[in-house]
Automatic annotation (TrEMBL):
One annotated Gene Ontology cellular component of this protein: nucleus
Domain of life of the source: Eukaryota
Name of the protein in its database record: Sestrin-1 isoform X1
Subcellular location: Cytoplasm
Main location: cytoplasm
Name of a matching Pfam family: PA26
Keyword Cytoplasm among record annotations: yes
Key word Oxidoreductase present: yes
Keyword field: Cytoplasm, Oxidoreductase
Catalytic activity: a hydroperoxide + L-cysteinyl-[protein] = S-hydroxy-L-cysteinyl-[protein] + an alcohol
Gene Ontology MF: a single term: L-leucine binding
UniProt record similarity statement: Belongs to the sestrin family.
A biological process from GO: cellular response to L-leucine
Length: 551
């Protein structure tokens, strides 16, 4: 746990038993009030200059506790905990201590808070899901609150993540969180890095490892190369990468450990894509999620603006430009018409295998030239970059500098027939959980498109999934890649490629500029497709390399 929190136990608040929570809350209240009184008395009696540092340390510890209470008052699924946390904060404030307030406006910078389910207003089924998540992690994080647009997927996601991080498995708990940190850091995702730094310490991880990857055990340092290639250029993974990890003498990985690590790496690379793709805000109790500054007259101060925490009205201005509602409406109508025409063409004639292969190569080549006008290098912050090596290594298209990468044919190696069984054999039950999550994301539909109902969206969902795999060189022999250009316009392709390949470069403008007439829930649905297609693509390359090493 973070410094200053080691004397306060939050675990009891995760209990489903109200008596246990009540006892835990009372202990927390007494502990925080003792610290508050102690700090006040020290302030009143302290006159030596040397006391200033100890006062600052004491105040910093108290502030972390108060920030945690603020998070509980807003995000705990148990009403008694929310109310008591707010009461404790007010008690501290009455003693003359400044208390924190949230920064920003909700779990996402891209989605208005009023459109996201508020904690406390959920139905019974959703409350159970929230309570499960809170019991497992001790928090209800912003990713969960955005994914809740799609409860069926969220339940599968939380079950899988819980198994990977907390259930029996080849890797010790602190290794799991450290690998999560390494993976998220490849995309400079400070949101996920901060969460897992806290989790790593909570399960007994050595704080020295957090000073940089070079301070971690050699075994984890050796994983750095696979992490790097998997995150940015997975088509370059070979069985030699696998052999180096499995035959590193006293620092060797077992096959089961390596499968666990690969699944964790791909999970967190993809989750970084979701974090940036949906504009996930910092958690309330983390850096950037709260402030101790008092609100100004207009309810936000200039420091909030520089941190991207703008006023509600300003946040809801469409940064995609002056697009009229009628233009957006016609975009939806045009997309629906293209879907109808493509279906008719499918029914009338089928392209030859040669033509299908040619269309794949054309689409793969064209995907190289899809980039954003905002495309510029993002320099990672030191607190994130220390968790990985070779900070200059990033995504590169296939044939830059004349490099050619052979097409990965799903007919030769696929998740269903090969990857699934390999994962399940070496890390029981995980293959099943991941498979279920893939299927839910791919098949999820409410048969709606913007304002239209009773729409078969399978063609559109398949185009999105296959476009992502096409960017990674993965080809389905039975798919006509000519459909992609018909269904996905340039602004959507820019968004997809950025979220999947360089998520740290995603902007609100990109999010706003595609599917302008669609609901936010539909854009979150798109992100679920993007992250699962990306995770499967990475897994296919890694698992194929492991299979080749084994045979």
């Amino acid at each position: 746990m973070a410094e200053g929190e080691n004397e306060v136990r939050w675990d009891g608040l995760c209990s489903r038993d109200s008596t246990t929570r009540e006892a835990a809350l009372e202990n927390i209240r007494q502990s925080i009030l003792r610290k508050t009184e102690c700090l006040r008395s020290v302030k009143e009696t302290s006159c030596r200059p040397s006391d200033g540092l100890s006062n600052a340390v004491s105040l910093d510890g108290l502030n972390k506790l108060l920030a945690h209470l603020l998070m509980l008052s807003k995000r705990c699924p148990f009403k008694d905990v929310r109310e008591k946390s707010e009461f404790i904060l007010k008690s501290v404030q009455e003693l003359g201590i400044r208390i924190p307030r949230p920064l920003g406006h909700g779990p996402s910078r891209f989605i208005p808070e009023k459109e996201i389910l508020q904690v406390g207003s959920e139905d019974t089924q959703m409350h159970t899901l929230f309570a499960d998540s809170f019991a497992a992690l001790g928090r209800l994080d912003n990713i969960t609150l955005v994914m809740v647009f799609h409860p069926q997927y969220l339940e599968s996601f939380l079950k899988t993540q819980h198994y990977l991080l907390q259930m029996d498995g080849p890797l010790p708990l602190h290794y799991r969180h450290y690998i999560g940190i390494m993976a998220a850091a490849r995309h400079q995702c400070s949101y996920l890095v901060n969460l897992h730094v806290n989790d790593f310490l909570h399960v007994g991880g050595d704080p020295k490892w957090l000073n940089g990857l070079e301070n971690a055990p050699q075994k984890l340092q050796n994983l750095g190369e696979l992490n790097k290639v998997l995150a940015h250029r997975p088509w370059l993974i070979t069985k030699e990468h696998i052999e180096e990890l499995l035959k590193a003498e006293e620092h060797s990985w077992s096959l089961a450990e390596l499968i666990h690590a690969v699944v964790l790496l791909t999970h967190y690379h993809s989750l970084a894509s979701f974090t940036f793709g949906c504009g996930i805000s910092p958690e309330i109790h983390c850096d950037g999620g709260h402030t101790f500054r008092p609100p100004s007259v207009s309810n936000y101060c200039i420091c909030d603006i520089t941190n991207g925490n703008h006023s509600v009205d300003e946040m809801q201005v469409n940064s995609a430009g002056n697009i009229s509602v009628s233009d957006s409406f016609f975009e939806v109508e045009a997309l629906m018409e293209k879907m109808r025409q493509l279906q008719e063409c499918r029914d009338e004639e089928e392209a030859s295998q040669e033509e299908m292969a040619s269309r794949f190569e054309i689409e793969k080549r064209e995907s190289m030239f899809v980039f954003s006008s905002d495309d510029e290098e993002v320099t990672p912050a030191r607190d994130v970059s220390r968790h990985f090596e070779d900070t200059s290594y990033g995504y590169k298209d296939f044939s830059r500098h004349g490099m050619h990468v052979p097409t990965f044919r799903v007919q030769d190696y696929c998740w269903e027939d090969h990857g699934y069984s390999l994962v399940n054999r070496l890390y029981p039950d995980v293959g099943q959980l991941i498979d279920e999550k893939f299927h839910i994301a791919y098949n999820l539909t409410y048969n709606t498109m913007a304002m239209h109902k009773d729409v078969d969206t399978s063609m559109l969902r398949r185009a999105i999934w296959n476009y992502i795999h096409c960017m990674f060189g993965i080809r389905y022999d039975d798919y006509d890649y000519g459909e992609i250009n018909q269904l996905l316009d340039r602004s959507f392709k820019v968004y997809i490629k950025t979220v999947v390949c360089t998520p740290e470069k995603v902007t609100k403008r990109m999010y706003d500029s595609f599917w302008r007439q669609f609901q936010h829930s539909e854009k979150v649905h798109v992100n679920l497709l993007l992250i699962e297609a990306r995770m499967q693509a990475e897994l296919l390359y890694a698992l194929r390399a492991i299979t080749r090493y084994m045979t």
